[in-house]
Design a protein that fits this description.
The protein is of the alpha/beta class. It has seven helices and five strands.
Length: 200
């Protein structure tokens, strides 16, 4: 059972991101304020859940969270400011859209930038420890997957509906054969030695 709060006093917003590692597509991040008295055994780190369960829990989270927001940073900005800064910026944007005051921010991982001088805690594997972070991880993951599935319709050759932009062997081979799109993170591809094909 994940923990319902970091501290019993005050209102906490959990944050997590999805899509730091892919070769294509934006990075998404969510912020969630979860009721401290609502424990849900099914909610967990999104990576530990199958797609059907994640999508089911997304609806539950949206209906039961005190507040939530999801935002993305596009590929052009990722390339300009790097993926870590883009992930943090997406979290900040989501926090901006939380309509109620909160006292504490819980962040999955070990990197974050101060947000409005509000107390924050970075927590390694926080998405498998705290409900608010796990809920944020599920929202970020499902929103990003939905985005990549829609993007797949425009560029089916890369099979984004299945690989979600990650660097699978099939995806890399398709880049070599068909080139890069504007949705690819060129700096990520270049690190893998993928420099072939046209950009369109």
């Amino acid at each position: 059972m994940l923990l319902p709060f970091f501290h019993k006093d005050g209102i906490e917003a959990g944050c997590d991101e999805a899509g730091r590692g892919p070769l294509a597509g934006p990075v998404f991040a969510a912020a969630v304020i979860w009721p401290k008295d609502l424990e849900v055994p099914e909610i967990n780190d999104s990576k530990l859940l199958n797609e059907k369960t994640r999508n089911k829990l997304r609806l539950y989270i949206e209906e039961n969270a005190i507040a939530f927001a999801v935002n993305k940073i596009n590929v052009e900005e990722i390339e300009k400011i790097n993926i870590l800064q883009a992930s943090i910026k997406a979290m900040h944007r989501s926090l901006d859209q939380i309509p109620i005051r909160f006292d504490r921010i819980l962040v999955d991982g070990n990197k974050f930038k101060n947000y409005r001088s509000i107390e924050h805690h970075t927590i390694i594997k926080g998405d498998s420890k705290f409900l608010s972070i796990a809920a944020a991880s599920i929202l970020a993951k499902t929103y990003r997957d939905e985005f990549m599935i829609k993007l797949h319709e425009k560029h089916p050759v890369y099979n984004w509906k299945n690989n979600k932009g990650y660097g699978t062997q099939e995806h890399i081979q398709s880049i070599l054969e068909n080139g890069l799109t504007r949705h690819h993170r060129k700096s990520f591809c270049y690190k893998l030695g993928i420099r072939y094909g046209k950009l369109f």
